[in-house]
Amino acid sequence: MNPAISILIRTFNSAGTLPSVLDRLELQPEDEIIIVDSGSTDATLAIAEKYRARILVAEPPFNYSKSLNIGFQAAKNPWVLVLSSHCIPVSSRFLTGWRESAGNFPHNVAVAYGARLLAAGEKSPVDSKPAYCLNRAEWEEHKPIFAGNSNAIYRLDGWRRHEFNEKMPTGEDMEWLLWALRNGHVIAHVPDAIVLYRNSGSLRYMYGKGFTEAMVERKLLGLEPPSFLRLGIGIGSLIKKLFSGQMPLDVFAKQCAHQYGAFWGSRQTKTAGKET
After folding, report:
1. Predicted local confidence at residue 121, as pLDDT
2. What pLDDT, on a 0 to 100 scale, did the predictor assign at position 235?
3. What DSSP element (H or E) covers 45?
């Protein structure tokens, strides 16, 4: 049985990308769109109203987890798809694919993650794989980092047992993943649920975003920081996408800022001990 889905989108001055996101959602009658807005001053709310979204307001100061918790509290369907306002679905069957996957998940899957691409026409490195599940032991073997609240679907009952941690500045996605695995749940990855990432933040914002995310991620996972070689490979990949015409110049600059921020952020926290 393919379940009804609540689509939860957090917004802040998202008028540039929100129509492209909403246009790609093939809704069924029982689905709902929930917009949690953090004080937009552009046409974001008018766009949301046009698509008959339910609009909720997150009072300042902004907090990723608080915005999510507001949306989850209002959701009526068994699965909640968390989608960024700047992540545009690639396939016209994006929501249908998520619906079919959720309907076939084992009962112990608490959350599943899709793929996020930076360049138009780019292929996901795992797009040839079918959806697959990981328990704690399997995840611990390699610690694949595909957690992210830009394109993820949660079982609402799981959130009711563990809300997002509002004390964290970011990294609420990884904290929730770790909670799920440590409490006997299974996570899933759906490689063909793909979005195109088009964050409109400034270079300073993107640097700070990468810095904070990497700092929190390292604290949670206890990973070693990336080498200068790895940073160079990452920047080189972006340059290749720029000159191949797959990535606009502004997106290239913002992703470079994000990678530099992540590189230095990963060096600001001592490696945390393994949590059990």
Report:
1. 64
2. 93
3. helix 44-50
Which tops the pLDDT comparison, 206 or 71? 71
What H or E segment, with its residue span, contains residue 157? helix 156-161
Domains of the chain as residue ranges with CATH = 5-197 (3.90.550.10), 203-265 (no CATH)
244 alpha-carbon distance from chain centroid: 26
Looking at 160-169, 177-186, 216-225, which range is the least confident one? 216-225
* Structure-token pair, residue 247: 């990535």
The identity of residue 253, as a single letter, is A
Closest CA to 38 of 21, 17, 55: 55
5-23 confidence digits (pLDDT tens): 999 999 999 999 999 999 9
How far apart CA 200 and CA 215 sit, in angstroms, is 22
| Cα 81 from Cα 156, distance rounded (Å) | 10
Q: Kindly give, in sequence order, each residue whose CB lies less than 8 Å from that of residue 127, ignoring residues fewer than 6 positions away.
A: 115, 191, 192, 194
How does pLDDT run across 46-60, given as a tens digit for each residue?
A: 999 999 999 999 988
